[in-house]
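Proteins fold reproducibly. Next comes an illustrative record:
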Amino acid sequence: MTVWDDLVGQPDAVSVLRRAADAARAQVEQQAAADLGGDLLVADDEFAPHDPDGVEPTGSALAAEAHAPAPGRHVGGMTHAWLLTGPPGSGRSNAARAFAAALQCPRGGCGECHECRTALSGGHADVTLVATEHVFLRVEDVRPLVTLAQQRPSLGRWRVIVVEDADRLNDTSGNLLLKAIEEPPPRTVWLLCAPSAEDVLVTIRSRCRHVGLRVPPVADVAALLVRRHGIDPAVASFAARAAQSHIGFARRLAVDESARIRRREVLRLPMQVTSVGAAVLAAAELVEVAQEEAKAATADRDASERAALLHSLGAEGQATLPPPVRAQVRQLEENQKRRATRANRDVLDRALVDLLSLYRDVLVVQLGSPVELVNAEMADDVERLAGAATPAETLRRMEAIGEARTRIEANVSPLLAIEALMVRLRPVDVRSR
């Protein structure tokens, strides 16, 4: 078993990253040979420039190489900055971790050695994993990374910094990171992850080598759930299909019955929206469910963080906190509030994606397409919705869901955005068609 085994349905990306890891390993071995008196083939303090006269690899497996910038590129395909993109659930964070492990592994990602295990788990001293639960990656989040990037690896072959939410960099934090990428230290590798290249500042993505991931096949995701988590094949197949190949959500649906119940309740909302009043009530119900789920996911962590902070400051059990302690508690509460906002948005967005899958199925039935339904277990409801509307009306409803997602991401009140959506999901009077 290698570090690449869990990257289901990504043969092209794996091929590119595996070749780059092999090139990086060869570079380290050549430097080691040089230190012992051998010929130095690749300089230790910089990547060799791309040879414009060299023969480029061809084939679908290396399609992502077309996005690679020339500056700083190694002739074997290795460079100091990478941008891994793919739709939610495609496994871009897993790909970044696997690549980080392969860079540290003396066998290029065997999956069994200490370097591979610690890199994949986040415990390797020279592999830093960065993910934010806030709306944006702030300057105070990025500045320590810039400092860390200047240090040589302490134990491993490379210092690897994985930024799992590069799409959440704002202009200020992005420009700070840009300076670190423009002037790469000799043994530092940046791995940035984002849904698409367009989600990253153009100045940053122009200096990174781009590798795109695709949505993995449902069958591959189901097989992964069976192999890694021992899920019943039927449940695994349902979860993979319902999650639309999103690996993380498929795992959650497979192991958490409450998640399956909440999803089913969300999908039944359109059948309840028969008037403006019902639409408002449905919107309030959806937003309340999302808030409760987000609160349940963060409440225990918030309480433990507050208790740990008070313990470290020696203020446990005090009814009145000293001003310095109050300031630190206030800062913690602000961070937790931003995290709760992000969690609430994520839960709502996932509910809207599930609704979008329902109307996708409705459109499939209306057009007589032979493709499989995402929500096959709701075939009767899908048929009823399909018979009560035209394809044009279904498309308008899908557009309304997309607008609601955009508005929530733009910080519009979730309740107002969902109310406006539910009103647009009401059945159209046949006489008005």
About this structure: The CA atoms of residues 9 and 216 lie 5 Å apart. Confidence is low (pLDDT under 50) at residues 39-75. The longest helix spans residues 323-367.
